[in-house]
C-alpha cells in the first residue's frame, strides 16, 4: 500500500472531529487578529510613549508587514513540505511570545525589532491556519467557513476597540498587548491533540494519488499554468493592503488629532467599523458561495465609496460611525479570497499559494511611510484618501481573475 492510499480522506473524518478542530482554529484566529491590530489601534499610545513622529509611528506597521511577508513565504513552504500542524504550533507559540514582548519595548529600534519578529509569526497565519480548515470541508462550505474566520478576526478588533475605549485612558495600555498573547500561549498545546495531522490525510476533494510538488512549491506558483493568476492575486492583495493601511492605519490618529474626539468616542467608532466587518464577512462569504468568487469584487467598489464618505460628508461622531460601518461591511468582501485561492491551485501547493495573501505587503508596507509624509505635508485626510484609489483599482483587478464556482440563481 503506497503512502497516498494509506492516508485518511478528510471526507472520512467524523464531522464532530472536524468541527472541533475548526472551533480551536477560530480561537487562535481571534488572538491573531488582536495581536495584529495593536500596531494600528495602539499607535497613538506607542507614538506618545516613545516620542515618535507620524512617519516613525507608521513604520512599526512597515516592520510588522515585512516580517509577515517573509513569515508567510517561509511557513507556507515549510507547511507544504513538513505538515501544517507542527508549523501551526510554532506560529501560535511565536506569536504569543513576540506579542507579549511588546510590553517591554523602550525605544524606536526595539519597537521595529519587536514588530518585525511578531510579523514573522503572524504572516504564517493565513497560509497555514486557513489552509488547514479549507482542506477539511467541501467547496460549498468554504466561503461560509471563511466568513466565520473573518467574523472571528473582526470580533477580535471590536473587542480590542472596546478595550481601548475602556482602558487606554484609565490604566496601563500595555495590558492590551498581554490580553492577546497569554491565553494563546496557554491553549497552544491543544493544537497537537485536536487538529488532524495533515501529513496523514488527503484534503477534501483532492486526488489521493496526487504527487507532492516536484520542485520548490513557491516556484510552481509561477509555472505556465499558474503564472498569470499568481501575479493578478499578488496585485490584488497589494492594493487591498495598501488601501486598508492608508485608511484604517490612521483612523485612531485621525479621530484623535483631526476630529478631537475622546477615547470613548474613538473606541465606539472603531468597534462600529469592525461591527460592520463582522456582518459583512458573513454576507460576503454566503454571497461568494452562491454567486461566485469574482462577483464578490463589488465589495471593493462599495469600500471606495464608503471611505470617500467617511473623510468628507461624515462629520459628526454618529455620521462617522455609520460611514465606518459601511466601510467595514464592504471591505470584508476579501473573505472570498481564502476559498478562491484554495480552488485556484492544487492541494500539493495550497499553503504556498495561500502565502500570496501576504505578498501584497511588499507594496503595503510602504503605505505608512508614504501616507505619513503626505499627512505631514497635506494632512491626514489627504493621506487617507489614497484608500479610495486603492480599493477602486483593486476591484478592477478582482474581475480579471478566473471564476471557480458556478453561480446559483436558486437557494441551496
Summarize the main sheet.
Answer: 2 strands, parallel
Shape, per Cα inertia axes: globular
What's the total helix number? Answer: 24
Number of strands: 2
Order of helices and strands: HEHHHHHHHHHHEHHHHHHHHHHHHH
Strand order of the largest sheet: 1-2
Distance between the termini: 39 Å
- What fraction of the residues are assigned to beta strands by DSSP? under 5%
User: Overall mean pLDDT score?
Assistant: 84
Using brief descriptors, characterize the structure shown.
single chain; 412 residues; mainly alpha; 24 helices; 2 strands; 73% helix; 1% strand
Describe the SSE topology.
Layout: H1 3-6, E1 8-9, H2 15-41, H3 43-50, H4 54-82, H5 84-101, H6 108-122, H7 125-134, H8 139-167, H9 175-179, H10 182-187, H11 190-194, E2 201-202, H12 217-220, H13 227-248, H14 251-258, H15 263-291, H16 298-311, H17 317-331, H18 337-344, H19 350-354, H20 356-359, H21 361-364, H22 367-378, H23 380-384, H24 386-398
Model description:
With 412 residues, this protein is mostly helical. It is 73% helix and 1% strand. The protein has 24 helices and 2 strands. The chain has a two-stranded parallel sheet. α5 packs antiparallel against α6 (108-122) and α16 packs antiparallel against α24 (386-398). The longest helix is centred in the first third of the chain and has 29 residues, at 54-82. Residues 1-5 have low confidence and may be disordered.
Amino acid at each position: 500500500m503506497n503512502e497516498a492510499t494509506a492516508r485518511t480522506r478528510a471526507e472520512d473524518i467524523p464531522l464532530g472531529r472536524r468541527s472541533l478542530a475548526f472551533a480551536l482554529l477560530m480561537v487562535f484566529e481571534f488572538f491573531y487578529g488582536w495581536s495584529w491590530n495593536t500596531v494600528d489601534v495602539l499607535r497613538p499610545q506607542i507614538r506618545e510613549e516613545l516620542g515618535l513622529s507620524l512617519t516613525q509611528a507608521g513604520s512599526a506597521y512597515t516592520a510588522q508587514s515585512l516580517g509577515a511577508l517573509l513569515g508567510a513565504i517561509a511557513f507556507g513552504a515549510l507547511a507544504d513540505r513538513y505538515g501544517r500542524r507542527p508549523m501551526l504550533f510554532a506560529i501560535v507559540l511565536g506569536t504569543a511570545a513576540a506579542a507579549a514582548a511588546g510590553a517591554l519595548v523602550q525605544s524606536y529600534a526595539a519597537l521595529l525589532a519587536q514588530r518585525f519578529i511578531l510579523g514573522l509569526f503572524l504572516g504564517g497565519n493565513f497560509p497555514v491556519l486557513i489552509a488547514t480548515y479549507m482542506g477539511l470541508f467541501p467547496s460549498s462550505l468554504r466561503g461560509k467557513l471563511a466568513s466565520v474566520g473573518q467574523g472571528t478576526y473582526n470580533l477580535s478588533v471590536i473587542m480590542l476597540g472596546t478595550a481601548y475605549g475602556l482602558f487606554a485612558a484609565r490604566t496601563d495600555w500595555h495590558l492590551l498587548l498581554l490580553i492577546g498573547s497569554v491565553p494563546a500561549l496557554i491553549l497552544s498545546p491543544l493544537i497537537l491533540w485536536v487538529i488532524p495531522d495533515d501529513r496523514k490525510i488527503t484534503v477534501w476533494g483532492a486526488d489521493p494519488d496526487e504527487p507532492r510538488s516536484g520542485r520548490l512549491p513557491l516556484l510552481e506558483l509561477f509555472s505556465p499554468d499558474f503564472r498569470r493568476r499568481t501575479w493578478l492575486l499578488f496585485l490584488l492583495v497589494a492594493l487591498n493592503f495598501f488601501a486598508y493601511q492608508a485608511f484604517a492605519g490612521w483612523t485612531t490618529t485621525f479621530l484623535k488629532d483631526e476630529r478631537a474626539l475622546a477615547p470613548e468616542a474613538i473606541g465606539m467608532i472603531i468597534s462600529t467599523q469592525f461591527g460592520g466587518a463582522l456582518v459583512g464577512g458573513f454576507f460576503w462569504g454566503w454571497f461568494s458561495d452562491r454567486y461566485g468568487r469574482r462577483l464578490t469584487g463589488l465589495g471593493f467598489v462599495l469600500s471606495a465609496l464608503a471611505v470617500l464618505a467617511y473623510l468628507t460628508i461624515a462629520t459628526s461622531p454618529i455620521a462617522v460611525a455609520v460611514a465606518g460601518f459601511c466601510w467595514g461591511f464592504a471591505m470584508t468582501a476579501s473573505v472570498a479570497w481564502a476559498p478562491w485561492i484554495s480552488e485556484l491551485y492544487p492541494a500539493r501547493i495550497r499553503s504556498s499559494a495561500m502565502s500570496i495573501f501576504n505578498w501584497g505587503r511588499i507594496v503595503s508596507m510602504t503605505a505608512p511611510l508614504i501616507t505619513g509624509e503626505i499627512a505631514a505635508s497635506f494632512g491626514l485626510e489627504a493621506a487617507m484618501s489614497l484608500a479610495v484609489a486603492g480599493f477602486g483599482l483593486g476591484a478592477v483587478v478582482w474581475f480579471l481573475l478566473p471564476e471557480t464556482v458556478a453561480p446559483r440563481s436558486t437557494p441551496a
